[in-house]
Specification:
- A seven-stranded parallel β-sheet has the order 7-6-5-8-9-10-11, sandwiched between helices. It has a three-stranded parallel β-sheet with strand order 2-3-4.
- The chain starts with a helix and ends in an 18-residue tail after the last strand.
- The chain is elongated and about 60 Å long.
- It folds into two domains: about 110 residues, Rossmann fold; about 180 residues, NAD(P)-binding Rossmann-like Domain (Rossmann fold), CATH 3.40.50.
- By secondary structure, the chain is an alpha/beta fold.
Length: about 325
């Protein structure tokens, strides 16, 4: 914010994040806004912001932003989509390690006899990567460095593509991936056509006692199929980061399952990722409105979590 204030008029207005009526009034002449994740940018909202030239997002994902409406109005959408790649990969790796050694968590919770189950080592095991999103590319390097055999499948990447060799990942068919892997990591970008992608047909091929981790949207999973696999032993346990409303609701077959763990979107929740995202958005917002006339007009920043003091940012700080 300090960097932006030397170049533009800046307002910090976190209270507007949950009051769209007040936001419309306060931001009528605003040229750029950095929105928090919970604020949805719709066509209707943009109608009340005629001067808006840029929308900033510190989080990955565009589900809460109408890209079509922004494009029609010439509004640039600034999103730090790559800032969280490493933090996401580390989350998936740590989740795998926790599931392989579940007794560690039980012991930390104070249980005297945490588990009778013998833990496993990642080294020498086979991990399947479902989806070659940027996060998967970092994760693959981490896994191979630990002596893991990595296999992978992506519906959009042909098995002869050079990327597989580059990442040292063996491409396999989808049934072979779930049939061979000791654990599966899911980081497929979500699209409507992939709703229920992980279904009964796919999970029928599951290797018994398989472990699953994922950061993809929960709509990727068919709830009944996932519940059945968790209950009959095909899946020993599953950790997912974030879930849409109703995923574990009262009527969901997943409600109460003790071997399903859902975290509240923690994969990108690191200081370093937030710092990278903040600098990226600040620079791109500056560029977007500096190309427009009247660049001294204020823009409102409804919510922002500043990076803690003392962090070094040589790779991302302005030069």
């Amino acid at each position: 914010m300090a960097w932006l204030e030397t170049r533009h008029s800046v307002e910090y207005r976190p209270e507007l994040a949950d009051d769209l009526v007040a936001l419309r009034k306060a931001a009528y002449k605003t040229r750029a806004i950095v929105f928090p994740q919970q604020t949805v940018v719709t066509r209707e909202l943009l109608d009340f912001l005629p001067m808006l030239k840029a929308v900033g997002r510190l989080q990955a994902g565009t589900d809460n932003t109408s890209l079509e409406a922004c494009n029609e109005r010439g509004v640039t959408v600034v999103q730090a989509s790559s800032a969280h790649v490493r933090s996401n990969a580390e989350y998936l790796l740590s989740s795998l390690l926790l599931l392989y050694r579940r007794g560690v968590v039980s012991a930390l919770m104070g249980r005297r006899h945490p588990t009778t189950q013998v833990g496993r080592e990642l080294h020498g095991s086979t991990v399947g990567i479902l989806g070659l999103a940027p996060t998967a590319r970092i994760l693959a390097g981490m896994l191979t460095g630990l002596g893991v055999r990595v296999i992978g499948y992506d519906p959009a990447v042909h098995h002869t593509a050079p990327i597989w060799d580059l990442l040292k990942v063996q491409p396999v068919s989808l049934p072979d991936l779930v049939g061979q892997a000791d654990a599966v990591s899911v980081q497929m970008p979500y699209a409507a056509r992939f709703r229920g992608f992980v279904n009964d047909k796919l999970l029928a091929s599951c290797k018994h006692g398989q472990l699953w981790v994922g950061i993809s949207r929960s709509e990727l999973f068919d709830q009944r199929a996932l519940a059945a696999a968790l209950c009959d032993g095909r899946m020993e346990a599953c950790i997912l980061d974030g879930a849409e409303a109703g995923f574990q609701g009262e009527t969901s077959p997943l409600k109460g399952l003790k071997n399903l763990f859902v975290t509240p979107r923690l994969s990108s929740h690191t200081r370093e990722a937030r710092l990278r995202a903040s600098w990226f958005v600040a620079h791109r917002i500056h560029e977007a409105i500096s190309l427009q006339p009247d660049s001294e007009s204020p823009f409102i920043k409804p919510i922002y979590v500043p990076a803690p003091a003392g962090l070094e940012c040589q790779d991302v700080a302005p030069r």
